[in-house]
UniProtKB/TrEMBL annotation:
<comment type="subunit">
    <text>Homodimer.</text>
</comment>
<dbReference type="InterPro" id="IPR005814">
    <property type="entry name" value="Aminotrans_3"/>
</dbReference>
<comment type="pathway">
    <text>Cofactor biosynthesis; biotin biosynthesis; 7,8-diaminononanoate from 8-amino-7-oxononanoate (SAM route): step 1/1.</text>
</comment>
<comment type="similarity">
    <text>Belongs to the class-III pyridoxal-phosphate-dependent aminotransferase family. BioA subfamily.</text>
</comment>
<dbReference type="InterPro" id="IPR005815">
    <property type="entry name" value="BioA"/>
</dbReference>
<comment type="function">
    <text>Catalyzes the transfer of the alpha-amino group from S-adenosyl-L-methionine (SAM) to 7-keto-8-aminopelargonic acid (KAPA) to form 7,8-diaminopelargonic acid (DAPA). It is the only aminotransferase known to utilize SAM as an amino donor.</text>
</comment>
<keyword id="KW-0663">Pyridoxal phosphate</keyword>
<feature type="binding site">
    <location>
        <begin position="123"/>
        <end position="124"/>
    </location>
    <ligand>
        <name>pyridoxal 5'-phosphate</name>
    </ligand>
</feature>
<dbReference type="GO" id="GO:0005737">
    <property type="term" value="C:cytoplasm"/>
</dbReference>
<feature type="binding site">
    <location>
        <position position="319"/>
    </location>
    <ligand>
        <name>substrate</name>
    </ligand>
</feature>
<feature type="binding site">
    <location>
        <position position="406"/>
    </location>
    <ligand>
        <name>substrate</name>
    </ligand>
</feature>
<dbReference type="InterPro" id="IPR049704">
    <property type="entry name" value="Aminotrans_3_PPA_site"/>
</dbReference>
<dbReference type="GO" id="GO:0004015">
    <property type="term" value="F:adenosylmethionine-8-amino-7-oxononanoate transaminase activity"/>
</dbReference>
<dbReference type="GO" id="GO:0009102">
    <property type="term" value="P:biotin biosynthetic process"/>
</dbReference>
<feature type="binding site">
    <location>
        <position position="156"/>
    </location>
    <ligand>
        <name>substrate</name>
    </ligand>
</feature>
<keyword id="KW-0032">Aminotransferase</keyword>
<feature type="binding site">
    <location>
        <position position="286"/>
    </location>
    <ligand>
        <name>substrate</name>
    </ligand>
</feature>
Length: 439
């Protein structure tokens, strides 16, 4: 490696294959990733053409985070301005304005009575912190037996230890660890259908599980309204009310993981808003910084914080090196202001309408089991799981249409940036259609 001399694409891929782990990837790498040279607006610019395309519309918003698109002048200014002042400082014993303002802003925009904010450094860590808060709460109140979690099947909460224990135990990626992870409780997956009132039999199933296990349950944790990486399933918001009531009745805490759904993705600022329900603990991440930097947040109510402060260890025992990073918190503030500074609901409705129109024909394709749309989320579910070759073929078909998608299992889907134009939404739909035919 010669310092300062750029790598050729061939050199870069050879080094990548040999040294760099990619998400859920083998080592050494088997499939060459596309090399992204730069990104602006909704477009990724590749170092070399792929399937005849040098630019791709990002139908994934970088795993659902880049809601304002790339290289946004407002977010760039926020990062640059903060960089000139201070890029990082430890958060133990010190504080700074971007973190304090962000915490206050998050409390302002999330449902009451969430009031306290732990600034974590990734979504998975924010879930770890949420779980720790709940376990420590019950321990502090002298009820250490309340240490299990209940969730429903089909969920995904991250790749670190506690989150893995509440991911889908069957369809998920973490079954390898099932004997080692803390043994949690699983309700059946919620019945599909976002408009439907909760199914009475399913509601009874949830209430019964919570009632029977309340003595050992610290918390219920769910992704509200949309289960993302576990299967892109939508469910009735009414179920959130059922959980809230049952948790209140049986003295169990309720965690909403809004890492994927937060900041407008489903058409409400937070998916809990579809039901008007507030959790005891809420996790945020991904779009928090508009996808610019790694930052997440765990919010909790005064009840939870007060409980912890009454314990034998009256502090929350967690403190990452990069907690409250000034760059990330400054950009998060700018991203929230950018989102709320215009009619974001209209923007999401526009994308939703474009996805509904654009995917109508795909629902008729042979091999397509279901097409569903909610907010800026469009999902095409096949009637078969894609193997590696099928996923590669589907990805290539989308790239040929000038769109970046990442199929998984039986799912082709898009969660585009909110600034995606009508033409580009239509292009994404064409790519999903092509991918469905190719897979
Ligand atoms: N929770 C949900 C609902 C998610 O969708 C994800 C990531 O996809 C996570 C947690 C984990 O977040 P991260 O990848 O930032 O650790």
């Amino acid at each position: 490696l010669t310092p300062g001399k750029p790598l050729t694409p061939g050199e870069l891929l050879a080094l990548d294959r040999r040294h760099v782990w990619h998400p859920y990837g083998p080592m050494p790498g088997r499939r060459d990733p596309l090399i992204v040279e730069s990104a602006a607006g909704v477009r990724l610019r590749l170092a070399e053409p792929a399937e005849g395309r040098r630019e791709l519309v990002d139908g994934m918003s970088s795993w659902w985070s880049a809601v304002h698109g790339y290289n946004h002048p407002v977010l760039n200014d926020a990062a640059r301005g903060q960089l000139d002042r201070m890029s990082h400082v430890m958060f133990g014993g010190l504080t700074h304005e971007p973190a304090v303002r962000l915490a206050a802003r998050l409390v302002e925009i999330t449902p009451e009575p969430l009031e306290h904010v732990f600034l974590a450094d990734s979504g998975s860590v924010s879930v770890e912190v949420a779980v720790k808060m709940c376990l420590q709460y019950w321990r502090s109140l002298g009820r250490p037996d309340k240490r299990r979690l209940l969730t429903w099947r089909g969920g995904y909460h991250g790749d670190t230890w506690q989150p893995m224990a509440v991911c889908d135990p069957d369809g998920g990626m973490h079954h390898l660890w099932s004997g080692l992870l803390p043994r949690q409780l699983f309700a059946d997956a919620p019945p599909p259908g976002v408009d439907a009132l909760p199914d009475p039999a399913y509601e009874a199933h949830l209430r019964d599980l919570i009632a029977r296990h309340a003595h050992e349950l610290a918390a219920v944790i769910v992704e509200p309204v949309v289960q993302g990486a576990g299967g892109m399933r939508f469910h009735s918001p009414g179920l959130l009310r059922v959980l809230r009531e049952a948790c209140d009745e049986h003295d169990v805490l309720l965690i909403f993981d809004e890492i994927a759904t937060g900041f407008g993705r489903t058409g409400e600022l937070f998916a809990a808003g579809h039901a008007g329900v507030s959790p005891d603990v809420m996790c945020l991440g991904k779009a928090l910084t508009g996808g610019y930097m790694t930052l997440a947040a765990t919010l909790c109510t005064p009840r939870v914080a007060d409980g912890i402060s009454r314990g034998e260890l009256p502090v929350l025992a967690h403190g990452p090196t990069f907690m409250g990073n000034p760059l990330a918190t400054a950009v998060a503030l700018a991203s929230i202001d950018l989102l709320l500074g215009h009619d974001w609901r209209q923007e999401i409705k526009r994308i939703e309408a474009g996805l509904r129109d654009g995917l109508a024909a795909t629902a008729e394709l042979p091999g397509v089991r279901d097409v569903r749309v909610l907010g800026a989320i469009g999902v095409v579910q096949l009637d078969h799981a894609l193997d590696e070759a099928g996923m590669a073929a589907a990805t290539r078909a989308a790239v040929r249409e000038g769109v970046w998608l990442r199929p998984f299992r039986d799912l082709l889907y898009t969660m585009p940036p909110y600034i995606t134009s009508d033409d580009d939404v239509a292009r994404i739909c064409t790519a999903l259609h092509a991918a469905a035919r190719a897979g």
